[in-house]
Design goal:
Layout: E1 2-3, H1 12-32, H2 37-44, H3 48-64, H4 66-75, H5 78-96, H6 102-131, H7 136-178, H8 181-187, E2 192-193, H9 201-204, H10 214-218, H11 232-242, H12 249-278, H13 283-307, H14 311-314, H15 317-334, H16 341-370, H17 375-385, H18 387-404, H19 408-444, H20 446-453, H21 456-463, H22 468-483
Parallel strand pairs: 1-2
Helix pairs in contact: 1-6, 1-7, 1-8, 3-6, 3-17, 3-18, 4-5, 4-6, 4-17, 5-6, 5-7, 5-8, 6-7, 6-17, 7-13, 7-16, 12-13, 12-15, 12-16, 12-18, 12-19, 13-16, 15-16, 15-19, 16-17, 18-19
Length: 484
């Protein structure tokens, strides 16, 4: 059945539950790989930089292949994509338990497991956006809290498994646990929305559609499988329309901001446990720091999701997002002076809370920028942009640790990167607000408005400088002016 809009409930809560489990099996498991860091380094006798590549490749493959997950979800089935991803991720973890070198782990734990996570992560998140509108931020807060809950539970469990069964046995058990992604995939029932199923008349005038088939196409939606009747040009055009948001100024700014944010956040999850061990914290206390970070992450997910759904903050989601990113950057700047367990605990609380906050808002902000119909593709691109920073930042941080003999330079670089990400987005939003205020003052001036709308060339040059929402506003104002 086709829905006029997102149902904001019903089976949507099962979608939230499925996405919750997906984030546990993907992001929480990825974070817990840092607990294996010292074990890998000791067993294979390698330095920080080479060992850090394992975590980097997992994160990079997860984000780099995110558009592939969106593609399979859009053109085959979200259920098929997530189930396939679960099988690949489980296979990668099981093969990793038999590793004899770091290169083996690069391929099995890094590439294969990361690819499996990629096929699951972005399609599951996009499905939540399909089912919710009014309570979208809250739904995302609950769904994304799986990362925090999973980290809280898995961090001490993984440490216990390593002690009892060695790192090989722990990876083997994690491989079986990750098979639960196949169950999550079965919950992802697709939904048809009117905004997704645009009618075909805009294509009927194109020469590449045979005239004999136009009558049938008028009764057919673009989301139907028209591959047999469309030519290559038509399919290319539709593929471009699916990614036309890439040229939106708002999305471009968000993309650049995400690059710096991703560079800053990744090394901390790799080096928090090794840093804690280097300042004299015990293995169990170091794992407990990851658990604290995870459980407070949940609070950030849910409370920020609920708060930004309130009427007073709904219009200011972008500023809530950049505030959370900036606070995490400040936490990283202070981390080098925290050199015992009692001081590291407040850090885990603060960093975990704001990490959960901005992670929840990433899909919400993306949906606000590109719209629900393009959300799956846009999320694939956004998570794709995480790939290079996730690949580069942990080895760079490890190289700085090997070179300087301390973690200070690594953590400072992470902090400044996240603060720059927040500042960039802040200035972009302020510039947009100033431009829109100037537009309103222009349209309120009767003489100026008459001058603009009586000259088509000038009208075109003015509207070309504004984004889509501004163009729509000007178009409405033009109609009302012409009637007067």
């Amino acid at each position: 059945a086709q829905h006029a809009g997102p149902p904001d409930g019903g089976w949507g809560w099962m979608i939230v539950a499925g996405c919750f489990l997906v984030t546990i099996c993907t992001r929480a498991v990825t974070r817990c790989i840092s607990i294996f860091f010292v074990e890998f380094q000791t067993y294979f006798g390698q330095d920080y930089a080479r060992t850090a590549w394992i975590h980097s490749i997992v994160d990079c493959a997860t984000m780099l292949c995110a558009p592939l997950g969106s593609l399979i979800s859009n053109h085959v089935s979200c259920q098929v994509g997530i189930m396939l991803g679960g099988l690949l991720a489980s296979t990668g973890l099981i093969l990793s338990s038999f590793a004899t070198s770091l290169e083996h782990l690069y391929l099995s734990l890094g590439v294969l497991t990361g690819l499996g996570f990629a096929l699951c992560y972005s399609p599951a998140i996009a499905m939540v956006g399909k089912y919710f509108n009014k309570r979208k931020a809250l739904a995302y807060g609950i769904a994304m809290s799986g990362s925090g809950i999973g980290t809280f539970i898995l961090a001490p469990v993984v440490q216990l498994l390593i002690e009892q069964f060695s790192w090989r046995g722990a990876l083997l058990i994690l491989g079986g646990f990750v098979l639960n992604l196949c169950v999550c995939g079965a919950l992802m029932r697709p939904i048809a929305l009117k905004e997704d199923c645009k009618t075909a008349p805009e294509f009927l005038e194109q020469d590449y559609i045979p005239k004999a088939q136009k009558r049938d196409l008028k009764r057919t939606s673009i989301c139907s499988p028209l591959i047999k009747v469309w030519s290559h040009e038509c399919l290319c055009y539709c593929s471009w329309k699916e990614y036309d948001f890439l040229l939106m100024p708002g999305f471009m700014v968000l993309a650049v901001s995400v690059l710096f944010m991703a560079y800053g956040c990744s090394p901390l999850f790799v080096y928090l446990v090794p840093y804690a061990l280097s300042v004299g914290v015990s293995h169990h206390q170091a794992a407990f720091l990851m658990s604290i970070l995870g459980v407070i992450d949940i609070t950030g997910n849910i409370t920020f999701g609920w708060l930004t759904d309130r009427r007073c903050l709904k219009k200011h989601r972008h500023f809530c997002y950049l505030f959370a990113v900036g606070m995490d950057g400040l936490c990283c700047l202070f981390l080098p002076v925290l050199q015992n367990f009692p001081l590291l605990m407040p850090f885990s609380f603060t960093f975990g809370y704001f990490d959960g906050a901005y992670v929840t808002l990433i899909p919400v902000i993306t949906a606000d920028v590109v719209g629900t119909s393009s959300l799956s593709s846009a999320l694939g691109v956004v998570y794709f942009l995480h790939a290079i920073p996730y690949l580069v930042s942990p080895p760079v941080a490890g190289w700085l640790v090997d070179t300087t003999g301390s973690y200070t330079a690594s953590f400072l670089l992470c902090g400044f990167s996240m603060i720059f990400s927040s500042t960039l987005l802040c200035f972009a939003n302020l510039a947009k607000k100033i431009r829109r205020t100037h537009l309103l003052s222009l349209t309120n001036d009767t003489g100026t408005k008459q001058h603009i709308w009586t000259n088509g060339a000038i009208a075109y040059s003015v509207t070309a400088e504004f984004d889509q929402k501004d163009v729509e506003f000007l178009a409405v104002d033009t109609n009302s002016y012409s009637k007067r």
